[in-house]
Amino acid sequence: MKKPKDLKPSTLSLHAGQRPDTDFGARATPIYQSSSFVFPDTETAAGVFNAERAGHVYSRITNPTNAVLEERISALEGGVGAIATSSGQAALVLAITTILEKGSHLIASKSLYGGSHNLLEYTLPRFGIETTFVDLRKANEVKKSIKKNTKLIFGETLANPGLDVLNIPKISKIAHENNIPLLVDSTFTTPYLMKPFSLGADLIFHSATKFLSGHGVVIGGLLVDSGNFAWNSSSKFKTLTEPYKGFHDMNFVEEYGPAAYINRARKEGARDFGACMSPHTAFLVLQGMETLNIRMEKHIQNTRSIIEFLNSHKSVKSVCYPELEDHPDHVLANDLLPYGCGAVFTFELEGNVETGKKFIEQLNIFSHLANVGDAKSLVIHPASTTHHRMDALALKKGGMSESTIRLSIGIEDSEDLIEDLDEALTYSTRK
Fold it and tell me: Residue 266: which CATH number?
């Protein structure tokens, strides 16, 4: 059989990390719903505990079902290892705290998912980690924001909700010239639409809740390490380059080489923070990933049809999607996202808050809820829900209006979706 690096993504989505069960021949990955694992003898136990041999001790740190998922996402992204976490937010926290501590600084995009922004602006400063938010489209702004204690640059491959396209080659070049790793949230793009490591990113995390699982039934996250960043190129990353008293004075770079980061994250972060993914969740994410390529193709196909419809509708003021020529990142999207720009986008109705509410309430196929990446089509009206505390001016600064609608396009028949939207548009905007 070919090595994983030589296999196509659609094959890796089905096979990476897993072989038929040796005990009973089960082809699907078994769910090892066990908190802990029996050792055959004391010598083996000591070896596993001391990281001298492979094995599982406690499912907070490693689990056989989770291990298949971790190897699969690592293979798809082209990384050296991964960790499955309890949520995408947990993956972000783990990504940051593995290399940042009190007195550290990071640079982050101004255009971030609200939960990520809140973590960086309000929560982490309590622990001495400061963030400067910048427009990652402006290289000079990024360069000016770099300090001696800057240890990370963070952005989203496709920003939520404005769909800013992250120029990974440009930003990673700036980062690497200053011995700083680049972390990206690749939830909206998945390995099907973009391979951030091949463009220069060093670390990736996903909310596996979204497209990877694809059916809106689990909460989970994944952190992936490229193995490409030279952690010992400066004195900034002492958690990886100096002895760690919490694990037998281990120097992770010396012990694990390119996989130093992900092993530190597991042996400290997974152990101490405890935000582990359940084996049952890992199983469900694996089931979703088996059809990732097929689903993403349908997501993109439907999205393009619906955008064409909305862009020509008299009741629609504007549509925000990078494949449209009026999007500020249109040219960049053509270069970095040749297979499509995802299935989540916003559009603006002709009207106000009440127009948006009427539109939402008239829809029948679209589900009104705060999630994206489901096989089913989803809709939300930010001004009356996620951003209801903002006035019109604040919404404008955030790239929205009172009548902005966010859609996550599913894999239903596109004609049915268009008919549903058309009826709701006609009803909500009629005089």
Answer: 3.40.640.10
Q: How far is CA 246 from CA 51, 91, 114, 168, 250, in A?
A: 13, 21, 33, 35, 8
Both 309 and 202 in a single domain?
no
Residue appearing with tokens 């600084």: 105
CATH code, domain with 311: 3.90.1150.10
Into how many domains does the chain fold?
Answer: 2
Domain boundary among 271, 289, 307: 289
Tens digit of pLDDT per residue, the chain (431 long)?
Answer: 456 667 888 898 988 988 878 888 888 999 999 999 999 999 888 888 877 888 898 999 999 999 999 999 999 999 999 999 999 999 999 999 999 999 999 999 998 888 899 999 999 999 999 999 999 999 999 999 999 999 999 999 999 878 999 999 999 999 999 999 999 999 999 999 999 999 999 999 999 999 999 999 999 999 999 999 999 999 999 999 999 999 989 999 999 999 999 999 999 999 999 999 999 999 999 999 999 999 999 999 999 999 999 999 999 999 999 999 999 999 999 999 999 999 999 999 888 878 888 999 999 999 999 899 999 999 998 777 766 665 677 566 666 677 789 999 999 999 999 999 999 999 888 76
Residues 6+ apart with CB under 8 A from 111: 135, 136, 155, 156, 159, 160, 162, 164, 399
Residues 238 and 104 in one domain: yes
Strand pairing category for 203-207 and 221-225:
antiparallel
C-alpha–C-alpha distance, residues 184 and 196, integer Å: 8
Structure tokens at 210: 């979204």
* Among candidate residues 95, 139, 89, 94, the one with its CA nearest the CA of residue 115: 89
271 phi and psi angles, rounded to 5 deg: -70, -50
Farthest CA pair distance, the chain:
79
Do residues 272 and 417 share a domain?
A: no
Domain that holds residue 320: 292-429
Same domain (yes/no): 32, 172 = yes
This prediction has a pTM of: 0.94
Which of these three, 289, 320, 354, is where a domain ends?
Answer: 289
Shared domain for 228 and 304, answered yes or no, is: no
DSSP for 130-180, written as a single string: EEEEE-TT-HHHHHHH--TTEEEEEEESB-TTT-PBP-HHHHHHHHHHTT-
Whether residue 256 is found in the same domain as residue 356: no
